[in-house]
């Protein structure tokens, strides 16, 4: 099983940062160690990510949230992201193909010191809060991977389908209520002999309009890098970083704060433990990040705990006698 599989599966998880509602389709930090390494066997794989994020937008900084404008925002998210990936072939002219789907479910808790602009332009003062346990938008994923020696390459795409539980005019949401498409390219130098892995990833996210808020989020760019050392057949650990920047402006009647282009940098650490569930190999991976230099978005900390395991594997046919 490819060491980057859990990260590829988790890439569609929603993160509480950037653009409208402080949310972006691409989950920053998902482009970690071995990100471009694809599974060596055909089969069906399952990944479950438990994700916690705590962030804030302090002072007089404002945020468009659920069709409202708020300031002094604190947000807590505890969510679970279940993903299934099907690998139908590992040799389509030397390319491995993966197709998958993800569904986020979780609790979102938002508090704002000032409620500046409500629905239909109503002006309201004072602190407000909102909390809800909701189902987010489902996400379709596809990826192609190939390798040459120890260097692995992967192109991937994610499509956000806006049919989740979107709470109109409310602060707490996991669903985006907009179409969004992310395309990424990843490279991993993965050397099993030395135990080192160096990986990088770059991508762009194109966003459609939220028809309820008349808000169209601009195009977003994400860059990631990671280095990890395997210390034994079971344990590995490393460092990760990411950089996010919105490269085009928000627009539409609902974009009352103007361009609202976001930017943030994050650094973190990761560790993985490999074991078996029955006869299947499984990987348990923990990741933690802290953010800084945020502009027009929340800044905070996140923690992930992910489990990746094959549901079924297609072993290669034995050679003829």
Shape: elongated
SSE string: HEEEEEEEEEEEEEEE
CATH class: Mainly Beta
Number of helices: 1
**Rg, Cα atoms, Å:** 20 Å
Class by helix and strand content?
Answer: mainly beta
Looking at the overall shape, the CATH architecture is Beta Barrel
CATH homology superfamily name: Autotransporter beta-domain
Strand order of the largest sheet: 1-2-3-5-6-7-8-11-12-13-14-15
Number of self-contained structural domains: 1
Q: What percentage of residues falls in helices of 4 or more residues? A: under 10%
Mean pLDDT: 87
- Taking pLDDT < 50 over at least 5 consecutive residues as the criterion, the unreliable ranges are 1-18
State the distance separating the first and last CA atoms. 28 Å
CATH topology: Lipocalin
Give a verbal description of the structure.
With 321 residues, the protein is mainly beta. It has one domain: Lipocalin, CATH 2.40.128.130. Helices cover 2% and strands 62% of the residues. The chain has one helix and 15 strands. The longest helix is centred in the first third of the chain and has 6 residues. The N terminus is likely disordered.
């Amino acid at each position: 099983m490819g060491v980057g599989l859990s990260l590829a599966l988790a890439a569609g998880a929603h993160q509480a940062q950037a653009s409208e509602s402080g949310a972006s389709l691409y989950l920053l930090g998902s482009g970690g160690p071995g990100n471009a390494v694809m599974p060596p066997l055909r089969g069906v794989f399952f990944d479950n990510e438990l994700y916690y994020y705590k962030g804030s937008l302090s002072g007089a900084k404002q945020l468009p949230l659920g069709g409202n404008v708020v300031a002094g925002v604190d947000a807590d998210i505890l969510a679970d992201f279940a993903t299934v990936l099907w690998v139908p072939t590992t040799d389509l002219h030397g390319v491995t193909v993966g197709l998958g789907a993800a569904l986020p479910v979780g609790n979102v808790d938002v508090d704002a010191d000032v409620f500046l602009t409500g629905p239909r332009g109503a002006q309201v003062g004072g602190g407000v809060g909102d909390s809800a346990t909701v189902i987010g938008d489902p996400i379709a994923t596809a990826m192609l991977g190939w390798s040459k020696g120890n260097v692995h390459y992967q192109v991937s795409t994610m499509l956000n389908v806006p049919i989740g539980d979107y709470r109109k005019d409310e602060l707490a949401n996991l669903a985006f209520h907009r179409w969004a498409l992310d395309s990424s390219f990843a490279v991993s130098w993965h050397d099993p002999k030395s135990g080192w892995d160096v990986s990088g990833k770059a991508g762009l996210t194109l966003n459609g309009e939220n028809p309820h808020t008349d808000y169209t989020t601009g195009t977003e760019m994400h860059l990631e890098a990671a280095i990890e050392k395997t210390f034994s057949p079971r344990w590995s650990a490393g460092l990760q970083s990411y950089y996010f920047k919105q490269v085009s402006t928000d627009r539409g009647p609902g974009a009352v704060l103007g361009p609202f282009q976001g930017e943030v940098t994050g650094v973190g650490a990761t560790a993985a433990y490999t074991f078996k569930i029955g006869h299947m190999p499984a990987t348990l991976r923990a990741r933690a990040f802290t953010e800084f230099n945020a502009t027009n978005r929340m800044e905070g900390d996140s923690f992930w705990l992910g489990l990746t395991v094959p549901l079924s594997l297609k072993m290669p046919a034995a050679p003829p006698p």
